Amino acid sequence: MKKKNLIIFGTRPEAIKMAPLVKLFLENSDKFETKVCITAQHREMLDQVLDFYNIIPDYDLDLMKPNQNLYTLTSDIITELKPVLEDFNPDYVYVHGDTTTTMSASIAAFYSGAKICHVEAGLRTFNKRSPFPEEINRSITGRISDYHFAPTLTSKQNLLNENIQESNILVTGNTVIDALDYSSAIVNSEEYSDQEIEDLKSVVDASKRLILVTGHRRENHGEGFINICLALKQIAQNHEDVQIIYPVHLNPNVQKPVYELLSNQDNIKLVNPLSYPAFVWLMNKSHIIITDSGGVQEEAPSLGKPVLVMRNTTERPEAVEAGTVLLVGTNADKIISETERLLSNKKNYDTMSKLHNPYGDGKACQRIVDFILNKSHE
């Protein structure tokens, strides 16, 4: 009898990292019955990823509301998942990472009696306020989960330190590398056609070195984003041979300082948030990436791109230790000096760009499928 999988996610980063796992489980339909449930904690950006991967959800909770908050979102997810779990009655529920969807879905799945499988398990900063609320989301999910798919040995050790049984932990690498390999092959092929990428080609100045910037973290709102913008403006003014492209997050706390401080600089281009394939294309074209995103810290080293991380803490210390990323926080002087170092010193740049990516070989999803297959035969 086939085991039932329910894969739950709600945001674009989750969708990107879970999509290759969904595809692989569906390819093994002789062994598993697999269904997808989305909370739509993010709506438009989530739908873009589903379209790219040609994934049609079996359950769409459509929970995104204007001005939603953590209180209502958490309770809505738990409540709305109850009939889904009762209808499908899954053996295994898969959640990813550290979102409010992840934490809430793990609680709902626990109530239903399903085995909870946590993809990208064991990441920790050991500071419950940074990142907020993600650190607590993943810690709670870790306490509830039955099986833990840790991307690295460091993540595994964090789980062992929390008295998780070793036989229930599997080091897989990160599924984002599986996703990046799949999507890069598509967007870089001659047959692929995408209007958003075509529009970007008219924005990118091929004669300049491209710095790609992303920023959205809640803990950087306010003074942090003002410092980030002042640093980017100074870098642009210092280097006419550099072009900064910044897809600006829709959050007003990001939009306001970014457009007020950066919109009048010729070699800074502020663009709308990008779909996943367009962002992958732009990462491939970039020289340096400056970000506060967790996923980009994992993806960019696979593309040979140095990453400066605008955070004071990271749950991805492996990249810092490997030297593929560098923490610069939101200190304007630090952002400027480390960017200057990469722009002016080829040796420094080459060292950072050619290091080994600590996040895997693109076979994480296959390891997860094999693990669950073995567990289901026990």
Features:
UDP-N-acetylglucosamine 2-epimerase (non-hydrolyzing), WecB-like, six-stranded parallel sheet, alpha/beta, Rossmann fold, 2 domains, UDP-N-acetylglucosamine 2-epimerase activity, 16 helices
Q: How is this structure best summarized?
A:
Helix content is 49%, strand content 16%. By secondary structure, it is α/β, with parallel strands linked by helices. Strands 3-2-1-4-5-6-7 form a seven-stranded parallel beta sheet, sandwiched between helices.
Mind sketching the topology for me?
Layout: E1 3-9, H1 12-27, E2 32-38, H2 44-53, E3 59-60, H3 70-88, E4 92-96, H4 100-112, E5 115-119, H5 134-144, E6 147-150, H6 153-161, E7 169-171, H7 175-187, H8 195-203, E8 209-214, H9 223-238, E9 242-247, H10 252-262, E10 268-271, H11 276-285, E11 288-291, H12 294-299, E12 307-309, H13 317-322, E13 325-327, H14 332-344, H15 346-353, H16 364-377
Parallel strand pairs: 1-2, 1-4, 2-3, 4-5, 5-6, 6-7, 8-9, 8-11, 9-10, 11-12, 12-13
Helix pairs in contact: 1-2, 1-7, 1-16, 3-4, 4-5, 7-11, 9-10, 9-14
